[in-house]
Amino acid sequence: MLSRLSTLTTFYGKIKNMVNNGNNHVPARSAGGLDYDSSDFDHSPLVVFYEVTRACNLLCRHCRAEAQPRRHPLELDTRTALALLADLKRFPKPPLLVFTGGDPIKRADVFDLVRYGVESGLKVAMTPSATKLVTPEVIRGLQQAGLHRLAVSLDGADAATHDGFRRVPGSYERTLEIMRDAIQFNLPLQINTTIARHNFDQIDAMACLLGHYPITLWSVFFLVPTGRALAGSRIFPEEYEIAFEKLYQHTGRHGFGVKTTEAPHYRRFILEKQNHAAPAEKGGGDALPGIVGTNDGRGVMFISHIGEIFPSGFLPILCGRFPHDSAVAVYQHSPLFGDLRNPGKLKGKCGFCRYRDICGGSRARAYGLTGDPLAAEPDCIYGSPRVAPQRSLPPCLA
The domain spanning residue 332 has which CATH number? Predict the structure, then answer.
Protein backbone atom coordinates (compact mmCIF):
# COMPACT_ATOMS: atom_id res chain seq x y z
CA MET A 1 0.00 0.00 0.00
CA LEU A 2 2.80 2.44 0.88
CA SER A 3 4.41 1.73 -2.48
CA ARG A 4 1.11 2.44 -4.24
CA LEU A 5 0.69 5.75 -2.42
CA SER A 6 4.27 6.71 -3.25
CA THR A 7 3.65 5.94 -6.93
CA LEU A 8 0.54 8.13 -7.00
CA THR A 9 2.20 11.00 -5.17
CA THR A 10 5.13 10.89 -7.58
CA PHE A 11 2.72 10.63 -10.51
CA TYR A 12 0.80 13.75 -9.54
CA GLY A 13 4.05 15.61 -9.15
CA LYS A 14 5.29 14.58 -12.59
CA ILE A 15 2.13 15.46 -14.54
CA LYS A 16 1.84 19.01 -13.27
CA ASN A 17 2.17 20.33 -16.81
CA MET A 18 -0.53 18.13 -18.33
CA VAL A 19 -3.97 19.27 -19.40
CA ASN A 20 -7.10 17.46 -21.07
CA ASN A 21 -9.96 18.22 -23.48
CA GLY A 22 -11.63 18.89 -20.35
CA ASN A 23 -11.67 20.73 -17.25
CA ASN A 24 -11.47 18.65 -14.10
CA HIS A 25 -8.65 17.21 -11.98
CA VAL A 26 -6.08 19.39 -13.74
CA PRO A 27 -2.80 19.37 -11.80
CA ALA A 28 -0.62 22.44 -11.42
CA ARG A 29 2.08 23.31 -13.95
CA SER A 30 5.64 23.89 -12.92
CA ALA A 31 8.51 22.33 -14.88
CA GLY A 32 8.87 24.05 -18.23
CA GLY A 33 6.05 26.49 -17.47
CA LEU A 34 4.42 28.68 -14.88
CA ASP A 35 3.47 27.39 -11.47
CA TYR A 36 -0.29 27.46 -10.97
CA ASP A 37 -2.28 26.97 -7.78
CA SER A 38 -5.63 28.00 -6.34
CA SER A 39 -4.35 31.50 -5.57
CA ASP A 40 -4.28 32.09 -9.34
CA PHE A 41 -7.94 31.17 -9.92
CA ASP A 42 -9.27 34.71 -9.62
CA HIS A 43 -6.96 36.30 -12.18
CA SER A 44 -5.86 33.57 -14.62
CA PRO A 45 -7.29 30.32 -15.97
CA LEU A 46 -5.02 27.31 -16.15
CA VAL A 47 -6.52 26.30 -19.52
CA VAL A 48 -8.55 28.05 -22.21
CA PHE A 49 -10.44 26.04 -24.81
CA TYR A 50 -10.92 27.88 -28.10
CA GLU A 51 -13.44 26.26 -30.42
CA VAL A 52 -11.88 27.47 -33.66
CA THR A 53 -14.72 26.02 -35.75
CA ARG A 54 -17.81 23.88 -35.46
CA ALA A 55 -17.28 22.32 -38.86
CA CYS A 56 -16.66 18.58 -38.65
CA ASN A 57 -17.15 15.49 -40.80
CA LEU A 58 -18.19 13.26 -37.88
CA LEU A 59 -21.65 12.87 -36.31
CA CYS A 60 -20.73 11.87 -32.77
CA ARG A 61 -23.64 10.97 -30.50
CA HIS A 62 -22.36 13.05 -27.59
CA CYS A 63 -21.16 16.12 -29.53
CA ARG A 64 -21.29 19.18 -27.31
CA ALA A 65 -21.04 21.47 -30.33
CA GLU A 66 -23.66 19.66 -32.45
CA ALA A 67 -21.07 20.05 -35.20
CA GLN A 68 -22.04 20.64 -38.83
CA PRO A 69 -20.25 19.86 -42.13
CA ARG A 70 -19.59 23.53 -43.02
CA ARG A 71 -18.01 26.43 -41.18
CA HIS A 72 -20.30 29.06 -39.63
CA PRO A 73 -20.41 32.36 -41.59
CA LEU A 74 -19.83 34.33 -38.37
CA GLU A 75 -16.85 32.24 -37.27
CA LEU A 76 -13.99 34.45 -36.06
CA ASP A 77 -11.80 35.24 -39.06
CA THR A 78 -8.03 34.95 -38.98
CA ARG A 79 -7.43 38.54 -37.90
CA THR A 80 -9.92 38.35 -35.03
CA ALA A 81 -8.68 34.92 -33.97
CA LEU A 82 -5.13 36.26 -33.77
CA ALA A 83 -6.42 39.21 -31.73
CA LEU A 84 -8.04 36.72 -29.35
CA LEU A 85 -4.74 34.91 -28.87
CA ALA A 86 -3.05 38.24 -28.15
CA ASP A 87 -5.75 38.99 -25.58
CA LEU A 88 -5.16 35.64 -23.84
CA LYS A 89 -1.48 36.50 -23.56
CA ARG A 90 -2.51 39.42 -21.28
CA PHE A 91 -3.47 37.10 -18.42
CA PRO A 92 -1.04 37.48 -15.49
CA LYS A 93 -0.26 33.80 -15.98
CA PRO A 94 -0.87 32.90 -19.65
CA PRO A 95 -2.97 29.73 -19.89
CA LEU A 96 -2.48 26.57 -21.85
CA LEU A 97 -4.52 27.08 -25.03
CA VAL A 98 -6.42 24.14 -26.53
CA PHE A 99 -7.75 24.42 -30.08
CA THR A 100 -10.91 22.35 -30.25
CA GLY A 101 -14.04 22.15 -32.38
CA GLY A 102 -15.74 20.76 -34.43
CA ASP A 103 -12.55 19.83 -36.18
CA PRO A 104 -9.78 22.46 -36.09
CA ILE A 105 -8.24 20.97 -39.24
CA LYS A 106 -11.25 22.28 -41.19
CA ARG A 107 -9.70 25.76 -40.85
CA ALA A 108 -7.06 26.47 -43.49
CA ASP A 109 -5.34 28.98 -41.19
CA VAL A 110 -4.99 26.60 -38.24
CA PHE A 111 -1.21 26.26 -38.72
CA ASP A 112 -0.87 30.06 -38.61
CA LEU A 113 -2.93 30.15 -35.42
CA VAL A 114 -0.77 27.50 -33.78
CA ARG A 115 2.44 29.22 -34.85
CA TYR A 116 1.27 32.64 -33.65
CA GLY A 117 0.15 31.24 -30.30
CA VAL A 118 3.48 29.50 -29.77
CA GLU A 119 5.47 32.57 -30.82
CA SER A 120 3.39 34.62 -28.37
CA GLY A 121 4.57 32.40 -25.54
CA LEU A 122 1.48 30.21 -25.18
CA LYS A 123 1.55 26.45 -25.01
CA VAL A 124 -0.88 25.23 -27.66
CA ALA A 125 -2.61 21.85 -27.86
CA MET A 126 -5.20 20.58 -30.34
CA THR A 127 -8.04 18.04 -30.52
CA PRO A 128 -8.68 17.22 -34.21
CA SER A 129 -11.34 14.80 -35.36
CA ALA A 130 -10.20 11.39 -36.55
CA THR A 131 -10.84 11.87 -40.26
CA LYS A 132 -8.78 11.62 -43.43
CA LEU A 133 -7.97 15.32 -43.08
CA VAL A 134 -5.40 14.45 -40.40
CA THR A 135 -2.71 13.24 -42.76
CA PRO A 136 0.93 12.57 -41.84
CA GLU A 137 1.77 15.87 -43.57
CA VAL A 138 -0.71 17.71 -41.35
CA ILE A 139 0.72 16.14 -38.19
CA ARG A 140 4.24 17.00 -39.28
CA GLY A 141 3.13 20.57 -40.00
CA LEU A 142 1.60 20.89 -36.52
CA GLN A 143 4.76 19.53 -34.95
CA GLN A 144 6.88 22.01 -36.91
CA ALA A 145 4.56 24.86 -35.91
CA GLY A 146 5.34 24.08 -32.28
CA LEU A 147 2.19 22.26 -31.15
CA HIS A 148 2.61 21.20 -27.53
CA ARG A 149 0.30 18.18 -27.69
CA LEU A 150 -2.13 16.40 -30.00
CA ALA A 151 -5.24 14.81 -28.46
CA VAL A 152 -7.47 12.30 -30.24
CA SER A 153 -10.51 10.40 -29.00
CA LEU A 154 -10.83 6.68 -28.44
CA ASP A 155 -14.26 5.69 -27.13
CA GLY A 156 -14.19 1.92 -27.25
CA ALA A 157 -11.83 -1.02 -27.02
CA ASP A 158 -12.96 -2.24 -30.44
CA ALA A 159 -14.19 -0.82 -33.72
CA ALA A 160 -17.84 -1.74 -33.19
CA THR A 161 -18.08 0.20 -29.91
CA HIS A 162 -16.06 3.22 -31.01
CA ASP A 163 -17.57 3.54 -34.49
CA GLY A 164 -21.08 3.10 -33.12
CA PHE A 165 -20.49 6.05 -30.80
CA ARG A 166 -18.82 8.21 -33.45
CA ARG A 167 -21.40 7.16 -36.08
CA VAL A 168 -18.78 6.89 -38.83
CA PRO A 169 -17.50 3.44 -39.89
CA GLY A 170 -13.74 3.24 -39.90
CA SER A 171 -13.16 6.00 -37.35
CA TYR A 172 -11.61 3.54 -34.88
CA GLU A 173 -8.91 2.49 -37.35
CA ARG A 174 -8.42 6.12 -38.38
CA THR A 175 -7.82 7.04 -34.73
CA LEU A 176 -5.16 4.34 -34.39
CA GLU A 177 -3.50 5.53 -37.61
CA ILE A 178 -3.35 9.11 -36.31
CA MET A 179 -1.88 7.87 -33.05
CA ARG A 180 0.86 6.01 -34.91
CA ASP A 181 1.61 9.05 -37.10
CA ALA A 182 1.85 11.38 -34.08
CA ILE A 183 4.25 8.95 -32.39
CA GLN A 184 6.32 8.75 -35.58
CA PHE A 185 6.75 12.55 -35.60
CA ASN A 186 7.48 12.67 -31.85
CA LEU A 187 4.42 14.79 -31.18
CA PRO A 188 3.23 14.26 -27.58
CA LEU A 189 -0.06 12.39 -27.69
CA GLN A 190 -3.08 12.48 -25.39
CA ILE A 191 -6.07 10.16 -25.64
CA ASN A 192 -9.55 11.41 -24.71
CA THR A 193 -12.28 8.93 -23.82
CA THR A 194 -15.93 9.61 -23.07
CA ILE A 195 -17.31 7.18 -20.50
CA ALA A 196 -21.01 6.45 -20.96
CA ARG A 197 -23.38 3.48 -21.07
CA HIS A 198 -21.89 2.18 -24.32
CA ASN A 199 -18.37 1.56 -22.98
CA PHE A 200 -18.56 1.52 -19.17
CA ASP A 201 -17.68 -2.18 -19.16
CA GLN A 202 -14.62 -1.55 -21.39
CA ILE A 203 -12.62 0.76 -19.12
CA ASP A 204 -10.06 -1.92 -18.30
CA ALA A 205 -9.82 -3.08 -21.91
CA MET A 206 -9.28 0.48 -23.17
CA ALA A 207 -6.59 1.13 -20.56
CA CYS A 208 -4.80 -2.08 -21.51
CA LEU A 209 -5.05 -1.22 -25.21
CA LEU A 210 -3.55 2.23 -24.62
CA GLY A 211 -0.75 0.60 -22.66
CA HIS A 212 0.70 -0.55 -25.99
CA TYR A 213 1.24 3.06 -27.13
CA PRO A 214 3.69 5.67 -25.76
CA ILE A 215 0.98 8.21 -24.97
CA THR A 216 1.43 10.98 -22.41
CA LEU A 217 -2.01 11.19 -20.83
CA TRP A 218 -5.37 9.41 -20.80
CA SER A 219 -8.09 12.02 -20.23
CA VAL A 220 -11.34 10.33 -19.22
CA PHE A 221 -14.48 12.43 -19.69
CA PHE A 222 -17.71 11.63 -17.88
CA LEU A 223 -20.76 12.54 -19.92
CA VAL A 224 -22.56 15.84 -19.38
CA PRO A 225 -26.03 16.21 -20.96
CA THR A 226 -25.44 19.06 -23.38
CA GLY A 227 -25.47 19.32 -27.17
CA ARG A 228 -26.30 15.89 -28.63
CA ALA A 229 -25.46 14.08 -25.38
CA LEU A 230 -28.56 12.63 -23.70
CA ALA A 231 -28.91 12.45 -19.93
CA GLY A 232 -29.91 8.79 -20.21
CA SER A 233 -26.58 7.91 -21.81
CA ARG A 234 -24.55 8.69 -18.70
CA ILE A 235 -23.61 6.04 -16.18
CA PHE A 236 -25.34 5.74 -12.79
CA PRO A 237 -23.89 7.64 -9.79
CA GLU A 238 -22.88 4.37 -8.12
CA GLU A 239 -20.98 3.36 -11.25
CA TYR A 240 -18.68 6.39 -10.97
CA GLU A 241 -17.12 4.76 -7.90
CA ILE A 242 -16.54 1.55 -9.88
CA ALA A 243 -15.03 3.58 -12.75
CA PHE A 244 -12.85 5.51 -10.30
CA GLU A 245 -11.52 2.27 -8.82
CA LYS A 246 -10.62 1.00 -12.28
CA LEU A 247 -8.87 4.24 -13.20
CA TYR A 248 -7.01 4.18 -9.89
CA GLN A 249 -5.75 0.67 -10.62
CA HIS A 250 -4.35 1.80 -13.96
CA THR A 251 -2.79 5.05 -12.74
CA GLY A 252 0.97 4.94 -13.21
CA ARG A 253 0.90 1.33 -14.42
CA HIS A 254 1.22 1.87 -18.18
CA GLY A 255 3.64 4.77 -18.49
CA PHE A 256 0.93 7.41 -19.00
CA GLY A 257 -1.03 9.59 -16.61
CA VAL A 258 -4.76 9.25 -16.00
CA LYS A 259 -7.07 12.15 -15.28
CA THR A 260 -10.77 12.86 -15.32
CA THR A 261 -12.86 15.56 -16.96
CA GLU A 262 -16.26 16.56 -15.50
CA ALA A 263 -15.72 14.16 -12.61
CA PRO A 264 -14.03 16.30 -9.98
CA HIS A 265 -15.17 13.87 -7.30
CA TYR A 266 -12.36 11.59 -8.50
CA ARG A 267 -10.14 13.92 -6.46
CA ARG A 268 -12.09 12.96 -3.36
CA PHE A 269 -11.72 9.30 -4.30
CA ILE A 270 -7.94 9.68 -4.67
CA LEU A 271 -7.60 11.55 -1.40
CA GLU A 272 -9.54 8.88 0.45
CA LYS A 273 -7.36 6.23 -1.14
CA GLN A 274 -4.30 8.08 0.10
CA ASN A 275 -5.76 8.19 3.60
CA HIS A 276 -5.88 11.94 4.00
CA ALA A 277 -7.85 12.03 7.22
CA ALA A 278 -8.00 15.79 7.72
CA PRO A 279 -10.89 17.64 6.05
CA ALA A 280 -9.91 19.71 3.02
CA GLU A 281 -10.45 23.12 4.54
CA LYS A 282 -10.44 26.32 2.47
CA GLY A 283 -7.13 26.49 0.68
CA GLY A 284 -6.22 23.03 1.92
CA GLY A 285 -6.07 21.60 -1.59
CA ASP A 286 -2.69 23.22 -2.13
CA ALA A 287 -1.21 21.06 0.61
CA LEU A 288 -2.23 17.88 -1.19
CA PRO A 289 0.06 16.35 -3.79
CA GLY A 290 -0.31 18.00 -7.19
CA ILE A 291 -4.04 18.67 -6.97
CA VAL A 292 -5.52 22.01 -8.01
CA GLY A 293 -9.30 22.18 -7.75
CA THR A 294 -10.15 23.42 -11.23
CA ASN A 295 -13.73 23.27 -12.42
CA ASP A 296 -16.06 24.94 -14.92
CA GLY A 297 -15.20 28.65 -14.70
CA ARG A 298 -12.63 27.97 -11.99
CA GLY A 299 -9.26 27.85 -13.72
CA VAL A 300 -11.08 27.04 -16.98
CA MET A 301 -12.65 29.14 -19.74
CA PHE A 302 -14.20 28.32 -23.12
CA ILE A 303 -14.48 30.56 -26.20
CA SER A 304 -16.76 29.51 -29.04
CA HIS A 305 -16.23 29.72 -32.79
CA ILE A 306 -18.11 33.05 -32.89
CA GLY A 307 -16.40 34.51 -29.84
CA GLU A 308 -18.92 33.60 -27.14
CA ILE A 309 -17.28 33.24 -23.73
CA PHE A 310 -18.49 30.52 -21.36
CA PRO A 311 -17.22 29.00 -18.09
CA SER A 312 -16.64 25.80 -20.06
CA GLY A 313 -17.80 24.12 -23.23
CA PHE A 314 -20.21 22.02 -21.19
CA LEU A 315 -21.67 24.96 -19.23
CA PRO A 316 -23.25 27.08 -21.99
CA ILE A 317 -24.18 30.22 -20.03
CA LEU A 318 -23.06 33.25 -22.02
CA CYS A 319 -20.81 35.64 -20.06
CA GLY A 320 -19.36 37.79 -22.84
CA ARG A 321 -18.41 37.90 -26.49
CA PHE A 322 -15.03 38.58 -28.07
CA PRO A 323 -13.97 41.03 -29.53
CA HIS A 324 -16.57 43.26 -27.86
CA ASP A 325 -15.47 41.88 -24.50
CA SER A 326 -11.93 41.03 -23.46
CA ALA A 327 -11.56 37.39 -22.46
CA VAL A 328 -9.35 38.54 -19.58
CA ALA A 329 -12.00 40.95 -18.28
CA VAL A 330 -14.77 38.36 -18.54
CA TYR A 331 -12.80 35.72 -16.68
CA GLN A 332 -11.78 38.13 -13.92
CA HIS A 333 -15.01 40.12 -13.48
CA SER A 334 -18.03 38.13 -14.73
CA PRO A 335 -20.46 37.55 -11.82
CA LEU A 336 -21.00 33.93 -12.88
CA PHE A 337 -17.27 33.20 -13.08
CA GLY A 338 -16.93 34.77 -9.64
CA ASP A 339 -19.68 32.60 -8.19
CA LEU A 340 -18.18 29.46 -9.73
CA ARG A 341 -14.83 30.27 -8.12
CA ASN A 342 -16.42 30.67 -4.69
CA PRO A 343 -17.07 27.30 -2.98
CA GLY A 344 -19.24 29.14 -0.46
CA LYS A 345 -21.82 29.67 -3.21
CA LEU A 346 -22.38 25.95 -3.76
CA LYS A 347 -25.77 24.57 -2.79
CA GLY A 348 -27.07 21.32 -1.33
CA LYS A 349 -24.63 18.65 -0.26
CA CYS A 350 -21.80 20.25 -2.26
CA GLY A 351 -22.13 23.38 -0.13
CA PHE A 352 -21.24 21.62 3.11
CA CYS A 353 -19.04 18.82 1.76
CA ARG A 354 -15.59 18.81 3.31
CA TYR A 355 -14.07 18.32 -0.16
CA ARG A 356 -15.86 21.26 -1.74
CA ASP A 357 -12.71 23.36 -2.22
CA ILE A 358 -10.85 20.76 -4.27
CA CYS A 359 -13.90 19.10 -5.85
CA GLY A 360 -17.07 21.17 -5.90
CA GLY A 361 -18.86 18.72 -8.17
CA SER A 362 -19.33 19.14 -11.91
CA ARG A 363 -20.94 22.56 -12.33
CA ALA A 364 -21.76 21.66 -15.94
CA ARG A 365 -23.60 18.48 -14.97
CA ALA A 366 -25.46 20.29 -12.20
CA TYR A 367 -26.61 22.88 -14.73
CA GLY A 368 -27.44 20.29 -17.40
CA LEU A 369 -29.66 18.28 -15.07
CA THR A 370 -31.12 20.99 -12.78
CA GLY A 371 -30.76 24.28 -14.63
CA ASP A 372 -28.73 25.69 -11.71
CA PRO A 373 -24.92 25.81 -12.13
CA LEU A 374 -24.48 26.04 -8.35
CA ALA A 375 -26.70 23.06 -7.48
CA ALA A 376 -25.31 19.88 -5.94
CA GLU A 377 -23.49 17.42 -8.21
CA PRO A 378 -26.23 14.94 -9.24
CA ASP A 379 -23.85 12.03 -9.87
CA CYS A 380 -21.90 11.94 -6.61
CA ILE A 381 -22.79 9.45 -3.86
CA TYR A 382 -20.36 10.75 -1.22
CA GLY A 383 -22.01 10.37 2.15
CA SER A 384 -24.24 7.56 0.88
CA PRO A 385 -23.66 3.78 1.16
CA ARG A 386 -20.71 2.90 -1.07
CA VAL A 387 -20.43 0.21 -3.68
CA ALA A 388 -17.91 -2.52 -2.96
CA PRO A 389 -14.57 -1.72 -4.62
CA GLN A 390 -13.43 -3.92 -7.47
CA ARG A 391 -10.73 -6.26 -6.19
CA SER A 392 -9.73 -8.28 -9.23
CA LEU A 393 -7.08 -6.89 -11.55
CA PRO A 394 -7.59 -6.76 -15.33
CA PRO A 395 -5.40 -9.24 -17.25
CA CYS A 396 -2.85 -6.62 -18.33
CA LEU A 397 -2.17 -5.72 -14.66
CA ALA A 398 -2.41 -9.18 -13.11
Answer: 3.20.20.70
